Amino acid sequence: MHPPSRQDYISINFAGQGSGSYNNSKQWRRQSCWRKWKQLSRLQRSLILVLLFICGIASYPAVTEQLRAIWREAVQEAFRHAWKGYKDFAWGHDELRPLSKSYSEWFGLGLTLIDALDTMWILGLKEEFEEAKTWVAAELTFNKNVDVNLFESTIRILGGLLSTYHLTGDTLFLDKAKDIGSRLMPAFNTPSKIPYSDVNIGKGTAHPPRWTSDSTVAEVTSIQLEFRELSRLTQEPQYQAAVAEVMKQVHKLDGKLDGLVPMFINTNNGQFTHQGIYTLGARADSYYEYLLKQWIQGGKKENELLEDYLQAIEGVKNNLLQKSSPNGLTFVGELSHGQFSPKMDHLVCFLPGTLALGAYNGLPADHMDLAKQLMETCYQMYIQMETGLSPEIVHFNMHQGSTRDIEVKLADRHNLLRPETVESLFYLYRFTKDQKYREWGWRILQNFNKYTKVSSGGYTSINNVRDPDYPSPRDKMESFFLGETLKYLYLLFSDDPNLISLDQYVFNTEAHPLPIWPSN
Ligand code: DMJ
């Protein structure tokens, strides 16, 4: 690992006047300037000050634009570095292992490459995009005897192919999307129509995990944007029908608490299991995100989705929201059989962005207030750590007399290069134009560069965000670092609100933009 290679400062040189005995010491220059200033009349001085003030104001946008351009270039540079590692050591495989200069397979489908396609397009990395496209055309086949996770392959592969089709207009990606979409359909052949977690895309068989017949609630309710879009594009209704059936059932189910859902659902009887535990983190998170986003995707007409979303946000406020001590950070904890736990996953940091998106789309203004408070908390989860990177899970102190707001257990100190905080920063900046959100994102990017960049190429997850001397690299670059984290950072630093306009697109939970459906 090495520190960031770029130093982002602007250096300005004043040309000195030549003279016989050249004295250019700082002190001499300062005295000489001061003498000249004193010789000016009061009017002259005032005029100069006014001029300087006007120049300052006039040049401010240009200077800040120059800075943003530097930040965007830094994201492109980070992407190229990540891509170099992937290309050199993991080309066509699922994930780069940057330290061992090798790769790991999950589904054996070139996951990182597919997840990164639309990021390259958005970042303007045409050369990299073309070589990836050549691989998709020549090598990507789904006719393989492999088990894939329905949710992960939907959000990363189907979502990535659909968004790349929309951005490029190239039907290669639509054809591939249709192929994987139809191969995932056997997952819905269950007694309850709640899909199994795993599908063999070569054999056309599906099954739950070996130890249970349950599926994860977030997984079965966060595949809808992609399958609905596939139906719209192909005019084949079976994809939309399958995922709508899941939403219809979940809408009616008992076992919710003020709109909050348990984490598991049984594929035989369609009922929630492991009831009484409520979280906005792992296994439930994107259920809430997709309620809002499906409503937006479909033109804000599907009232049940909106009702469920609004009720759930009230459920969060009434049951999971607390403030930490001593500094009063607002956080979202968890509830287990009536017992509150001040535990918050980094995954929950999608929520400020989702709340802000809802408020932008006409939902209550206090959703935006809450978004801003939670955004601050998520940022604190980074800067209060010694590396300036968030751990996977934090616990907040709530008792009087605490000296720090955030505690991290030994087992929770890892950082997987996750996107949720920079994702929310992107939304908050788009809707408020408050520059602080960009500055926070810039600091986070610098910390990724400092502690997770591997010199031979790629970035790595780390084990310990609290040890800047040895963050203990894990030797894995998750595909979402390219699919999501770097994409959201680039969009955060972009001044063009039409670069993926939020009036035209809705991002799936893997940061792949899908079109909002035209009203006709
Ligand atoms: C991604 O695959 C998606 O963002 C998902 O919704 C949550 N987990 C990872 C990123 O953290």
UniProtKB/TrEMBL annotation:
Major localisation: endoplasmic reticulum
Catalytic activity: N(4)-(alpha-D-Man-(1->2)-alpha-D-Man-(1->2)-alpha-D-Man-(1->3)-[alpha-D-Man-(1->2)-alpha-D-Man-(1->3)-[alpha-D-Man-(1->2)-alpha-D-Man-(1->6)]-alpha-D-Man-(1->6)]-beta-D-Man-(1->4)-beta-D-GlcNAc-(1->4)-beta-D-GlcNAc)-L-asparaginyl-[protein] (N-glucan mannose isomer 9A1,2,3B1,2,3) + 4 H2O = N(4)-(alpha-D-Man-(1->3)-[alpha-D-Man-(1->3)-[alpha-D-Man-(1->6)]-alpha-D-Man-(1->6)]-beta-D-Man-(1->4)-beta-D-GlcNAc-(1->4)-beta-D-GlcNAc)-L-asparaginyl-[protein] (N-glucan mannose isomer 5A1,2) + 4 beta-D-mannose; N(4)-(alpha-D-Man-(1->2)-alpha-D-Man-(1->2)-alpha-D-Man-(1->3)-[alpha-D-Man-(1->3)-[alpha-D-Man-(1->2)-alpha-D-Man-(1->6)]-alpha-D-Man-(1->6)]-beta-D-Man-(1->4)-beta-D-GlcNAc-(1->4)-beta-D-GlcNAc)-L-asparaginyl-[protein] (N-glucan mannose isomer 8A1,2,3B1,3) + 3 H2O = N(4)-(alpha-D-Man-(1->3)-[alpha-D-Man-(1->3)-[alpha-D-Man-(1->6)]-alpha-D-Man-(1->6)]-beta-D-Man-(1->4)-beta-D-GlcNAc-(1->4)-beta-D-GlcNAc)-L-asparaginyl-[protein] (N-glucan mannose isomer 5A1,2) + 3 beta-D-mannose
Subcellular location: Endoplasmic reticulum membrane
Annotated residues for binding of Ca(2+): T509
InterPro entries noted in UniProt: 6hp_glycosidase-like_sf, Glyco_hydro_47, Glycosyl_Hydrolase_47, Seven-hairpin_glycosidases
TM region positions: 46-63
UniProt entry tagged with the keyword Transit peptide: no
UniProt pathway annotation: Protein modification; protein glycosylation
Disulphide-bonded residues: C349-C378
E.C. number: 3.2.1.-
Membrane topology: Single-pass type II membrane protein
Active site (catalytic residues): E152, D285, E392, E420
Cofactor: Ca(2+)
GO biological process per UniProt: carbohydrate metabolic process; ERAD pathway
Protein task: Involved in glycoprotein quality control targeting of misfolded glycoproteins for degradation. It primarily trims a single alpha-1,2-linked mannose residue from Man(9)GlcNAc(2) to produce Man(8)GlcNAc(2), but at high enzyme concentrations, as found in the ER quality control compartment (ERQC), it further trims the carbohydrates to Man(5-6)GlcNAc(2).
PANTHER family assigned: ENDOPLASMIC RETICULUM MANNOSYL-OLIGOSACCHARIDE 1,2-ALPHA-MANNOSIDASE, MANNOSYL-OLIGOSACCHARIDE ALPHA-1,2-MANNOSIDASE-RELATED
Similarity section: Belongs to the glycosyl hydrolase 47 family.
Protein's name according to its UniProt entry: alpha-1,2-Mannosidase
UniProt gene name: man1b1b
